Amino acid sequence: MAENLDETASLGPVYAARLAEDLKRNAEEQERLASEVAALQEKMATLRHNQALLVNMQQALGHTEQSDESATAGGAETASVPRQATPTTQAGKVQTGRAKKSTAVAKTAPAAHSTQPTKQGKDQGPTLRDLVVTHLSHEGEPRSAIDVADALSKEHPERGIKITVVRSTLEAMVAKGHVRRSKRGKSVFYTADAVRSASTSQPVTA
Fold first, then answer.
1. What does R_g of the chain's alpha carbons equal in angstroms?
2. Backbone dihedral angles phi then psi of residue 201, each to the nearest 5 degrees
3. Which long-range contacts (CB under 8 A, 24 or more apart) does 155-161 make?
4. Cα separation, 171 vs 173, whole angstroms
5. Which of the 8 DSSP states describes residue 186?
6. Average pLDDT rounded to a whole number, residues 132-138
7. What is the pTM of this model?
8. Does residue 97 register a pLDDT over 70?
9. Closest residue by Cα to residue 149 from 122, 124, 168, 177
10. Mean of pLDDT over the chain
11. Are 152 and 132 in contact (CB under 8 A)?
């Protein structure tokens, strides 16, 4: 009986040491898993942010393509309208004279209308994309969207430039290949493309 008590007493410290080691391993495992969960949450937040930017770019590009397709379809429809044959009767001669007058008015009207967009373009000045490319080309180093928006707001306070519009414009230009995007930690920076920056005097088309 005394021998059993002595054996139990001698095993007590061994069990205590094992329990302490198991608790330590458990705490370390919890800490490791917590770090992985935090990293995954941060990565998920970044993916959601990039998804929102990509959706905005897709919608903007889709609207531009729809406008171009509508303009092309309208031009094709106008070109496909057949010209009516000229009547040979006396009444037909009168109709022909009216048709000639209508044609003359139709030819002069587009000419007067075509000058209006040119005047408006001169009054509006360079587009936001032109300003962004020019600024990035002059800087020569990566700039964040906030830096670009602040600089353009100071140079052109009358335009009311917003950071959200600048960021969307930069992302759209990245998709077009006019601007390169790089990441440092959690921050995103933009640089004008070396080939594109050589022609900053020309407007950037969508």
1. 35
2. -70, -20
3. 155/131, 156/131, 159/128, 161/128
4. 5
5. T
6. 85
7. 0.36
8. no
9. 168
10. 74
11. yes
149 sits in which H/E element: helix 145-155
List the helix and strand counts (H, then E) for the chain: 6, 2
CA distances, 12 to each of 20, 38, 102, 162 (Å): 12, 39, 111, 70
Domain range summary for the chain, segments of one domain joined by +: 1-60, 126-197
- At residue 74, the pLDDT reads 60
Closest CA to 99 of 113, 87, 89: 87
Distance CA 17, CA 13 (A): 6
CATH number among 3.90.1150.10, 3.40.50.150, 1.10.8.60, 1.10.10.10, domain 126-197? 1.10.10.10
Indicate the SS3 state at residue 85.
coil
Q: How far apart are CA 98 and CA 104, in angstroms?
A: 10
